[in-house]
């Protein structure tokens, strides 16, 4: 049985649990370890979801399966408290920004390692020009990732997307020239898989800031 735990507030303990079998079968939502209701036979079967009134006036907790809707969307389980996504869930826009920053950290680390190997004299990387330029790209991406992670900078994330897309286009042209016109599909797929969460993160930054404001207002109330 799979299980995940979530917080009701960003700075609070993990009190909400969701467990299930298979592909969201026999799903059980719990609070502080106590089930809130009987198992849900198939969470995906009811798009309207299921609501539970929490004790102590905490509000209404809702769980619903969200089907993919569009290229940039993802199937997920939405968990909300009084209409507000729980921190760390797939519907929480702050999660999308965190994932985008993580992708940028990955790109930064990969370029730094490859660049360092090229500078150190590893012939494979050096012959492909992956030395100081790759190292510089890695450092730039590390700085951009920090700004996205700590400051939720839309400009930094947009610059990262443009740089990564531009580098991918240049790499594609060079690869096609070397391969006599053949398109390197593996590289394209990898680029798409990395750039999509960055775009989702860019689109979610404003909503992430709004979620912080709503959470602060709820705590003050």
Description of the structure:
The longest helix is centred in the C-terminal third of the chain and has 36 residues, at 185-220. This protein has helices at 93-119, 123-127, 132-151, 154-178, 185-220; strands spanning 2-7, 14-21, 25-31, 34-35, 40-42, 50-54, 59-66, 76-81, 84-85. Helix 4 runs antiparallel to helix 5 (185-220). Strands 1, 2, 3, 4 and 5 form a 5-stranded antiparallel β-sheet that branches. It starts with a strand and ends with a helix. The chain has 221 residues and is of the alpha+beta class. The mean pLDDT is 89. Helices cover 51% and strands 21% of the residues. The radius of gyration is 22 Å and the shape is elongated. It has 2 domains: 2-89; 94-206, no CATH class.
Name the descriptors.
221 residues; alpha+beta; 2 domains; four-stranded antiparallel beta sheet; 5 helices; 51% helix; elongated
Concise overview:
By secondary structure, this protein is α+β, with helices and mostly antiparallel strands. The protein is 51% helix and 21% strand.
Helix content: 40-55%
Strand content: 15-25%
* N-to-C SSE string, H for helix and E for strand: EEEEEEEEEHHHHH
Shape: elongated
Low-confidence runs: none
What is the distance, rounded to the nearest whole angstrom, between the alpha carbons of the first and last residues? 37 Å
| Most strands sheet | 5 strands, antiparallel
- The number of strands is 9
In round numbers, the mean pLDDT is: 89
Task: Briefly note the structural class of the backbone.
Answer: alpha+beta
Taken together, the total number of domains comes to 2
Number of helices: 5
Radius of gyration from the alpha-carbon trace, in angstroms: 22 Å
């Amino acid at each position: 049985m799979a299980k995940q735990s979530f917080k009701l507030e960003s700075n609070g303990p993990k009190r909400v649990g969701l467990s299930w079998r298979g592909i969201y079968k026999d799903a059980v939502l719990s609070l502080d370890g106590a089930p809130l209701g009987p198992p849900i036979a198939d969470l995906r079967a009811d798009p309207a979801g299921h609501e539970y009134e929490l004790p102590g006036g905490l509000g209404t907790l809702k769980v619903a399966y969200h089907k993919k809707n569009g290229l940039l969307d993802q199937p997920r389980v939405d968990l909300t408290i009084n209409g507000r996504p729980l921190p760390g869930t797939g519907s929480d826009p702050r999660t999308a920004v965190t994932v985008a920053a993580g992708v940028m950290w990955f790109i930064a680390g990969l370029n730094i390692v490859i660049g360092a190997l090229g500078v150190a004299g590893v012939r494979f990387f050096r012959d492909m020009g992956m030395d100081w330029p790759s190292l510089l790209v890695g450092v730039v991406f590390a700085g951009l990732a920090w700004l996205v992670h700590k400051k939720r900078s839309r400009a930094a994330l947009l610059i990262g997307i443009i740089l990564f897309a531009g580098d991918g286009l240049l790499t594609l042209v060079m690869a096609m020239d070397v391969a006599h016109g053949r398109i390197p599909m593996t590289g394209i797929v990898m680029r798409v898989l990395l750039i999509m969460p960055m775009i989702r993160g860019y689109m979610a930054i404003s909503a992430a800031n709004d979620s912080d404001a709503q959470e602060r207002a709820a705590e003050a109330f």
